[in-house]
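Homework-ish question, so no full write-ups if that breaks the rules, but can someone show me the predicted structure for this set?
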Amino acid sequence: MDYISTRGKAAALDFEGVTLAGLASDGGLYVPRSWPKFTQAEIAAMAGLSYVDLAVKIMAPYVAGSLTEQELHGLCEAAYGRFSHKAVTPLVQLDQSNWLLELFHGPTLAFKDVALQLLGHLFERFLSNRDTHLTIVGATSGDTGSAAIDAVAGREKVDIFMLHPDGRVSDVQRRQMTTVLAPNVHNIAIDGSFDDAQAMVKRMFGDPDFAGRFTLSAVNSINWARLMAQIVYYFAAALQLGAPHRPVAFSVPTGNFGDVFAGYVASQMGLPIARLVVATNVNDILHRALSAGDYSAGSVTPTAAPSMDIQVSSNFERLLFDLEGRDGALTAARMQGFEASKAMQLTPAMRTGAEGIFASASVDPEEMGIAMRRAWDDAGQVLDPHTAIGLGAAHRLQDAGTLDRAIPCVTLATAHPSKFRDAVERATGLRPRLPTRVGDLFERAEKFDKLAGDYTTVRDYIAARAVPAKG
Ligand SMILES: *Cc1c(COP(=O)(O)O)cnc(C)c1O
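A: Not a homework solution, just the prediction itself:
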């Protein structure tokens, strides 16, 4: 499989190349040249496979040319062997129409582990035959950082520099990053929002004084390998609910549009998905874009669901590229316009294309609390704030008739409730306990540096500590 940039200029790369590169050199994001398709018979034959065997079937076309199926199988076994549930992503029924897909059984209690545990192994595998030292630079609203750090801590030939917005991640999230003392892990708390941190990282990738000196890589969801790993659980859930003979809907708590884009890819590959609900909190740029064509960034309001406190969703560009007929020059012009003005209008054709599969809802704190209590009353399930926003959006669209109650709706449970236990306690009075697998998180020492939210300061801090490409 080869991969092209959404902005049409960067050279095509193979799977190994896109995994190590992250962002394309023209500022675009890599996507496969075409979507591999499965027939309905091929999908039907996937029923009953173990998670690892299913993962190999779904991902094999994407890694072709870079890994054999056997190698991929070994990496998936290593990655998913660390999950605390044998099913990896178990499905739980809430009521007649609603299910939860529990994606939080990995080491750091959020769905990011599903992709990042695999990515850690992919990095190791691809670096083993190269004379390269990788410098990962990332920004996190909390969960990506902890999952990425767990996935690469102590690995050879990799350093990770992770920026998080100071004081805007939960104490569990912060400690999951800052208590990892491996020398290749560098935590930086910056004065600013997640969007500020993400903008700095993007700028570093395009900064000739910086990017040229290191072999930079990305672990946020601009990295294709992450999205690829997330396609698998859409298939896993839908197969359990009767796909391909029966369509299934998904409600996805959304921030950077990575997780829900993986659902879009699953549908492009042939999985019969009736609807993908893009659930946002009050930071609702995606809801405005999908419901009114207005993709314009406001300022970020901090909420109880910090991983969704985002105004600029990187992966939306991948959808725009598809909606634009995969025209890189058009996408580049549109994105450059957006970067300059922070606003973009979707064309009627793009809106019609998106409406074919997406629906959206913005869920406020009150509705989030109602969804949490309803899951507890109906099914004895404690939800984290992100998941509750997903379920709240599903309820709203079912009440409005946008979602047919006869079609099973799977809300992605993106984090374990204990990761956000203060917010859960405020909304429900219940204080979720940390699973024993996180151990003595609150007794461990923390290591991180605080920096001003100033690009040059942060860049120079990293440049002074990273391993140059050629030494
Ligand atoms: C990252 C994250 C999200 C948002 O996912 P995107 O892929 O950025 O849309 C939602 N919930 C939780 C708990 C997360 O960690």
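Now go work out the reasoning yourself. Hint: The radius of gyration is 21 Å.
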